[in-house]
Amino acid sequence: MSLKAIWNAIFNSKKRDFLVHKLENALMQKDSKECIKIGIAYRDGDEVEQSLQKAHECFLKAAEMGDSEGYICLALLQCHCNNLENFDIQVINKKALEYLEKAGNMGDSLGYILLGSIYENANGVEQDCLKALDFYQKAVALKEGDGLFRIGQMYEKAYIEPTQELLDEFEIDSSDSDKNISIATQYYLIAANSMQSADACLKIAKILYDDYKALEKDNEEKALEFHGDAIEYYQKAGEYGNPKGYTELGLIYAWGDSIIEYDFEKGIKYFQKAASMGDSQAYLELGILASVGEECSIYGFDRAITYFQKAIDMGNFEGYTKMAATYGEWAYKVDDRKQASAYFDKSATYWQKVGEMGEFIGYFNAGRLYESAGAMAGKDKIKGVKINEQKAFECFLKAANMGDTKSCLKVGVAYYDGNGVEKDYTKAFEYFHEVIKKENNEKEKAKIKKVFYTTADILADAHIFLGRMYASGFGVEEDHNKAYEHFLEGAQAEVGKHQKAFAYSGIALMYHLREDDEFKALPYYQKAASLGNAYSINYLKNR
């Protein structure tokens, strides 16, 4: 056994003995909270060997002392075990439900809230909105504002329909198409104003801020009123315990709007408040300011990376995207080639991490970095970085296999030109056709927008490449009619002049090869030449 293993064994043994001693004292003093703390240590393996059985014993002892939190912990422990071997999910869920109901019956509204959520969202049980409503109402009876908020959500989602009696109570017309939303809003207002529900305050604030945005140009007086109320409710949301309220205030103050002038420092204070309360989004926003806000007090690369890492550690994986973008941006800001190259590698690595998490944009952006050595968006190549066509191809291929149309085009071009992979016209043909096959797929069009390319750009390129392949017989039997059709498709698309020029010259060439008709070809040569196509310019000069 290694020295490290021996030390860990001794440490765990001492920690275990210490916890046993603490548990014995807690039982003697009937300290349920201490039992729960010890149970959590065993559950999470916090500096001691994990033992779900011992955690269960500690939580049960706390519950038997009359602490409802013990039952809550027992219920969550059962759910935590769902993915472990040799456990029956149905048995576990049934036991978890029993524990939660016991907690609720002891006066703990959280038990009822969790039960309501389970039945509302069908977590391991069949959805039963009436049962969910009943549990939420029990929470309300215990003065829990979150119960009212969740009832409001159920009306907003139309999971339940308002009775005529309820409509009359709130003076809402039964023929109103938005009656569910109107009922929900009433519940949110009561929960926010009478029961200090942080979530309800946040909801009302967002409604009011949206109303302000809708009216800021047409009704300044009303917009100003909505804006002031929204700020007030965001503040209340934070004060009542929802850090998102402070995060939203941070966004408003940091970046400003038509009423509030931007104030980085005030925004930072709100983000820091939210972050201290456990909001990972606040860490992302702090990271963004640290990365790009040269005027603000926290500006700096190291701080930005630290903030993004904290967001990642809290489970907010958007931090990987921010990490990737920040390393890529700062690679241009350093003069040292070695440092710039290291930042570039980090950027590409983090983009690939985004891809590994199921977002094709990660692999696509990594591919773009490798194919251009960072020379994107009008920027020069990053100092000390070389183009890596093989890695670019590998990344584009992964993104294409995840369904990204633009990456399909990139893979097709790589096979066509032999960039990063052995030239293969047959495979190139397949990928270009795959792009066109996705043309009418609205879902794919939505994905394309995410990578800032229009559908027309991608499809035009695919058609032009297929036109070239049919014209020359590369990877497919030579067919000038099909080549003409593809060039025509490319020319008719709303694309840039370079693509149009190539398509026009292709059409002209097909009139020559297909019909030997210079009269028909000439206008297309002229169009292509006017757009700067060198082949067409030379043809017209020498004819």
From TrEMBL:
One of its GO terms (molecular function) is beta-lactamase activity. It holds the Pfam family Sel1. One of its GO terms (biological process) is response to antibiotic. The keyword Transport does not apply. Its EC number is 3.5.2.6. It is an enzyme of class 3 (hydrolase). Keywords: Antibiotic resistance, Disulfide bond. InterPro entries: Sel1-like (IPR006597), Sel1_AlgK (IPR050767), TPR-like_helical_dom_sf (IPR011990). Signal peptide: none annotated. It catalyses: a beta-lactam + H2O = a substituted beta-amino acid. This is beta-lactamase. It comes from Helicobacter cetorum (strain ATCC BAA-429 / MIT 00-7128).
